[in-house]
Automatic annotation (TrEMBL):
Entry-linked Gene3D superfamilies: 1.20.1280.50
Domain called F-box: residue spans: 66-118
Protein name: F-box domain-containing protein
Pfam families: F-box-like
Record's compositionally biased regions (Polar residues): 357-379
Organism from which the protein derives: Mycena sanguinolenta
InterPro entries: F-box-like_dom_sf, F-box_dom
Region entry Disordered, spans: 357-401
Length: 401
C-alpha cells in the first residue's frame, strides 16, 4: 500500500493513543520493534517478487518453446532469413536478423550464404573497428565465395591498409571483384599484389576507372612499369577493363566469354578482342579513328579480319566530342561474327544519326544477326535485321544536329 496523507494521519492518531502514558524510552523501543518488523516484511516481499519473476521467466520460456517458429527446422529458418534479406540493404538486414535473439543470431552466423552478397568495402575509412567488422563478416561467409566492391574517396583521403589486408586474406574466395569508383585512389602495391593473389574462385573482374597513387615514393612508382599478370584465375569468364589498365595488365583472355572494354583506343580494342576467341558477349566503348581536316583518313593498324566464331551479342558505344569527326566503319570492316544474334549501337550523349552520303551503320560480317538498336538509351529489340548496314560516323555533323 502506498503511503498517503490520510494513512499517515490515521497512524499518527493511533500511536498517540497508544503512547499517551508511555515514556520516551518506551517510544524508542516501539520504533525499533516496528523497524525490525518492516525489515522482515520487506525481505519476505523480495522473496515473493523473486519467485514471481522466476515463474514469469519460465512462462515466457515455455511460450517461446511452444511457438510455431521455434519448431521450424534450422534449414527452413535459414531459408526464411535468406528471403528476408534484400540485396540493396543486405548488411543492415543481416545484422537486424542476428539481433532478434540469441537463437536467431546463432542460426544467422552459421548460415554462410546470408553473408555472401556483394559487399562494399570502403578502403579509406580510418576507423580500426571497420577492419575488425570486415574480418568478422568475411569469417561468417566462409567457406563460400564472396563478391567484393572496393569503394574509395577522393585524392585527399588516405588508405586504411588494415582493410585492404583483411580483404586480401580471402582473395581465394572472391567470386567477383569490382573497382568501380572513378575518384578512388588505390596504392600501386595493392594493385600489383592483387594480380599475384591466387584468385581460384574469381569469375567476374571489373577493373573500373580506379587510379594508382601518383604520390608514392620513387621505389613504388617504379612498379608502374611492371605488368600485372593475372595468372591464377582459372574460373574467370567476365572482365571489364579501362584504358588505364591496358598498358600494364596481362589477362588469360582465351577463357573469357563476356568482355567490356571502356574508353580504349580502337586499335588496342581490336588487338585485345583478337586475344579473346571464345567471347559470347562483348561491349566496346571507343571513339573511333579521328579525321583531321586537310589530312588523310587514319586507318587501323590491323589489316586482317578478326573472327569471333562464338560471339552472339555486341554492344558498341561511342562517346561524343563536339567539333570532331570520327570514323567507326573500319572497326566493323575488320570484325567477323558469324553467330551474331544482337547488335546495339549506343551514343553516350545523344542518338546516332546517319553518316555521310546517307549510308547506314555497318554490322560485323554476319549472316545470322537479327536484332539491332540505334540510340542513346539502353538496348532494345527493334525487329529483324534484313540488310547489311554501313556508316562512317561523322561526329562533327552529329554535333550540329
Amino acid at each position: 500500500m502506498t503511503l498517503t496523507g490520510a494513512s499517515v494521519r490515521a497512524a499518527l492518531l493511533e500511536q498517540r493513543e497508544r503512547t499517551k502514558r508511555s515514556s520516551k524510552a518506551e517510544i524508542e523501543r516501539f520504533i525499533e520493534e516496528s523497524e525490525l518488523e518492516v525489515t522482515s516484511i520487506e525481505s519476505q516481499i523480495a522473496a515473493f517478487i523473486e519467485s514471481r519473476d522466476s515463474h514469469r521467466a519460465r512462462v515466457l520460456a515455455l511460450k517461446y518453446i511452444a511457438s510455431p517458429i521455434y519448431s521450424l527446422p534450422v534449414e527452413l529458418l535459414s531459408e526464411i532469413f535468406d528471403l528476408a534479406i534484400e540485396d540493396e540493404t543486405h548488411v543492415e538486414d543481416a545484422h537486424r536478423i542476428s539481433q532478434v535473439c540469441s537463437d536467431w543470431r546463432r542460426v544467422a552466423h552459421h548460415t554462410p550464404r546470408l553473408w555472401t552478397r556483394t559487399l562494399g568495402v570502403y578502403f579509406c575509412d580510418e576507423k580500426e573497428r571497420m577492419a575488425d567488422g570486415l574480418k568478422a563478416w568475411l569469417a561468417r561467409s566462409a567457406p563460400l565465395p564472396v563478391s567484393i566492391l572496393f569503394a574509395g574517396g577522393g585524392p585527399g583521403e588516405g588508405v586504411n591498409p588494415s582493410i585492404l589486408e583483411e580483404a586480401l586474406r580471402v582473395a581465394h574466395r572472391w567470386r567477383s571483384l569490382q573497382l568501380e569508383n572513378e575518384y578512388a585512389i588505390l596504392p600501386r602495391w595493392f594493385l600489383h599484389q592483387l594480380s599475384q593473389c591466387r584468385l581460384h574462385s574469381l569469375e567476374e573482374l571489373d577493373l573500373g576507372p580506379i587510379l594508382g597513387d601518383d604520390d608514392e615514393d620513387d621505389d613504388e612508382q617504379d612498379t608502374d612499369s611492371i605488368p600485372m599478370v593475372f595468372a591464377s584465375v582459372p574460373r574467370l569468364r567476365k572482365l571489364r577493363i579501362f584504358q588505364f589498365f591496358f598498358r600494364q595488365t596481362v589477362m588469360p583472355c582465351v577463357q573469357l566469354t563476356d568482355l567490356t572494354i571502356d574508353n580504349v583506343d580502337p586499335n588496342i580494342a581490336l588487338d585485345f578482342l583478337a586475344q579473346c576467341p571464345n567471347l559470347l558477349v562483348a561491349s566496346v566503348t571507343i571513339s573511333g579513328w579521328p579525321q583531321v581536316p586537310g589530312s588523310p583518313l587514319q586507318f587501323p593498324f590491323r589489316q586482317d579480319v578478326l573472327v569471333l566464331n562464338q560471339l552472339s551479342t555486341l554492344v558498341f558505344r561511342m562517346p561524343m566530342e563536339t567539333g570532331r569527326t570520327y570514323h567507326i566503319t573500319p572497326f566493323f570492316d575488320l570484325l567477323s561474327a558469324p553467330l551474331l544474334q544482337a547488335l546495339y549501337y549506343t551514343c553516350i550523349s545523344g542518338a546516332i544519326h546517319t553518316g555521310h552520303n546517307g549510308h547506314q551503320p555497318t554490322s560485323p560480317h554476319s549472316s545470322s544477326a537479327h536484332r539491332i538498336s540505334l540510340g542513346s538509351n539502353s538496348p532494345a529489340h527493334v525487329g529483324p535485321l534484313r540488310s547489311p548496314l554501313s556508316m562512317p560516323f561523322d561526329m562533327h555533323r552529329h554535333s550540329r544536329t
